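= Paired protein data =
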Amino acid sequence: MTPARARRERDKRNQRQAILDAAREIAASEGWGAVTTRRVAERIEYTHPTIYEHFESKSALLAELTREGYRLLLAELRAARAKAGAPLQAMHAMAQAYCTFAWTHRELYEVMHGLSGVSIEPEAYRKEGEAVIAEARAALEDWAKTEKVKLMNADDAVLVLWSTLHGIASLALNKQIVGGKKHAAALAARAVGDLLSAWRAAQCV
């Protein structure tokens, strides 16, 4: 690749990322309803057609942000798991990382989960979403092996954990938990602990 072509490719990547960042910034400050391709173009001083050189529609832009969100969530879950070490501590660390992600990257969390009026076809982010589930399943399987718990359906167990954390994180986002995010984090830890204790006692999930 010639230096000139390499520069053009780099500029194109930077331009694409600037579009994604601008959409996130608008959503973070005004909500997803305010995000339009025209608003994004105005924010970064691009022409409107420039947006369509990278994304064929607003839906395509939101789909890429959804994928970006799942990739970021996966990285944070992996980091939390690696740092925790022991399987039980890893489960708790990942639960806290999930909630922290939701609260730190609210605009991404909303688009990833169809909140605030945003709706993306699951097929658009299936690969990235399944990677997150696979990481959670691997952590749960490590815990089950350590505790000698038989996982009859690991995927269902992961969905139970995910649904629980999603509920707590979403309620906290909407300020529906007395005590705010600090209390919500404690509730998440308790919920995960209670589920794991129940599964350990049953010796079967």
